[in-house]
Design brief:
Blueprint: H1 3-20, E1 27-29, H2 32-48, E2 58-62, H3 89-96, E3 100-105, H4 139-146, E4 152-156, H5 163-169, E5 172-175, E6 196-200, H6 203-213, E7 243-247, H7 257-272, E8 276-280, H8 288-303, H9 321-332, H10 335-348, H11 353-374, E9 380-384, H12 400-404, H13 411-416, E10 420-427, E11 433-439, H14 445-458
Parallel strand pairs: 2-3, 2-4, 7-8, 7-9
Antiparallel strand pairs: 1-3, 4-6, 5-6, 5-10, 9-11, 10-11
Length: 461
């Protein structure tokens, strides 16, 4: 059977598997005929020898990423019927490289959540154990890969929203350096923190997907002009002489012992292969959650102001203009989104701006400086992705602070604009996946991917 015939068969199998696993609530949109039509066009390119680097790969798209002609909701009722008139830059780049776009994935509403239970369309369930959360906010994307439905997926990461679901679903997920990938067409949560990135079953596939979507975009003034390396062909390198830092603040109380033991075991394996292991300090880590939830909510309050029921999206009835505004937002937004809008509006309000928002920005700089200092001693950092393994659906929904603390090891990277990658490194005694996180210098994704590939080799398949 020729490769293009195998591809058509693979697509049909994936569509059947998506139906079989419908109870996991992974997809918000799955246009089967559109998928089949796209598959035919890709096979034509494969037959003619003109196919791009992603030909034969199926890629799911987080529903915060704009897709022309396909409903894009960001997991919110307020956008439940929104059909965008254009594609996000990353979507254009996927299609230019002949990736098969395979559905829009469920997510925490406006990417606000760590468990994927805040979606207006119901929670995603973890494919490894449906009683557990898949992590958020890109839970649908990670679950689509973990369930074997797609080869790859795109997520977005504002405070850990790619890395955490990757860890919870036992797949690889990367948050690139801020600016490495265009945000044009990403529905904004917190614009100085948001970053689109790849999710896949292997480091090599993450590298391939990153190569396809990275690079400057004239439509996004924050996108970098840094040259994009040939990531998938630069993965071969050993760790001999590599200086790996262990931030002591990531190894203290509050982290599950099994996770720490597994991460330390792999650290020793890297040491035995020639890596130099150095303890470092990131002294302002304890302020990262508070800083993140001031800055992120402030930016969310501003970004979500546009959803007023007048221009597009859900619109409630009302006799007065002010009533239409208030009812549209009250009924269209979920509880967590409303909570964050109110927090953000509060910290930006007169009399509180200096006390909260300005101070948070100053602490953000201190957090960034911690990393700069650490990277004078080491090439990259190694730590757990999450302090816990996946938890059961509903376990933390009544305690927002406990939910926020799940992101304790991930938010600092967004505040500092650094790249990070989560690699699955085995399971707990309960059979739940454990994720290890590597943190790199700005625009040093190549070094990060190389080290991740070596960690991946240490984990039995």
């Amino acid at each position: 059977m020729d490769s293009y015939e195998k591809f058509i068969e693979k697509v049909e199998d994936a569509l059947s598997l998506a139906d079989e696993k419908k109870e996991l609530n992974i997809f918000l949109s799955l246009e089967k005929e559109k998928i089949r039509s796209s598959a035919e066009k890709i096979t034509d390119a494969m037959k003619s020898g003109t196919a791009g680097m992603l030909a034969g790969k199926t890629v799911a798209i987080k529903d915060a990423i704009i897709t022309k002609g396909t409903v894009t909701t960001a997991g919110s009722q307020i956008l439940k019927d929104f059909i965008p008139p254009y594609d996000a830059t990353v979507v254009e780049r996927l299609m230019a490289n002949d990736a098969l776009l395979f559905g829009k994935t469920n997510m925490d509403e406006f990417a606000m959540g760590s468990s994927n239970e805040n979606s207006s369309f119901g929670p995603v369930k973890n494919p490894l154990n449906p009683e557990y959360v898949p992590g958020g906010s890109s839970g649908g994307s990670a679950a689509a890969v973990a369930a074997g439905i797609v080869d790859m997926a795109l997520g977005s990461d504002t405070g850990g929203s790619i890395r955490l679901p990757a860890a919870f679903c036992g797949v690889v997920g990367m948050k690139p350096t801020y600016g490495r990938v265009s945000r044009y067409g990403l529905i904004a949560f917190a614009s100085s923190l948001d970053q689109i990135g790849p999710i896949a079953n292997s480091v090599s596939d993450v590298a391939l997907l990153l190569k396809a979507i990275a690079g400057h975009d004239k439509c996004d003034s924050t996108s970098s002009t840094e040259e994009v390396p040939d990531y998938p062909n630069l993965l071969d390198n050993d760790v001999k002489g590599l200086k790996i830092g262990l931030p002591k603040e990531y190894y203290g109380e509050g982290c599950d012992k099994e996770i720490l033991d597994r991460v330390r075991e792999l650290t020793e394996s890297l040491r035995s292969k020639g890596a130099e292991i150095i303890e470092v300090s990131l002294p302002h880590t304890e302020y990262s959650i508070a800083t993140y939830y001031i800055i992120a909510t402030a930016e969310a309050s501003s970004n979500l102001e546009r959803y007023d029921g007048m221009r597009y999206g859900f619109r409630a009835d009302g006799n007065e203009l002010s009533e239409v505004y208030s009812q549209s937002r009250s009924k269209g937004f979920g509880e967590e989104v409303k909570r964050r809008i109110m927090l953000g509006t509060y910290v930006l309000s007169a009399g509180y701006y200096d006390a909260y928002y300005k101070k948070a920005q100053q602490v953000r700089r201190l957090i960034r400086d911690d990393f700069i200092t650490a990277f004078k001693e080491v090439d990259l950092l190694l730590a757990p992705t999450s302090p816990t393994t996946p938890f059961k659906l509903g376990d933390k929904m009544d305690d927002p602070l406990a939910m926020y603390l799940v992101d304790i090891y991930t938010t600092s990277l967004n505040l500092a604009g650094l790249p990070g990658i989560s690699i699955p490194v085995g399971n707990s005694s309960e059979g739940l996946p454990i994720g290890l996180q590597l943190i790199g210098k700005p625009f040093e994704e190549t070094e990060l991917l190389r080290a991740a590939a070596r960690v991946e080799e240490l984990v039995p398949s």
